[in-house]
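Exam revision sheet. Question 4 asks you to relate a sequence to its structure. Input first:
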Amino acid sequence: MKSILIKDTTKEERIRIVQQGLSACGGACDYCNGCDNLGGGLVDSFYEPYINGEKEIRELNEAYRPHTGLVR
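Answer key, structure tokens:
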């Protein structure tokens, strides 16, 4: 598996990584609550800092996890 770190990817690759990850269920993500988005709007905008090379995807996921109410 190729690295998904910002330093190892282009912006275009990061867009594809996010799109592939969000399409895992096969449905549209906007306003979906299937991934515990809580009907919270445009999921892909959440990953914009990763796409723009500002924060790693891991950091974004870790910041979101405490808000899901799921036990890990």
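Marking note for examiners. The CA atoms of residues 65 and 71 lie 9 Å apart.
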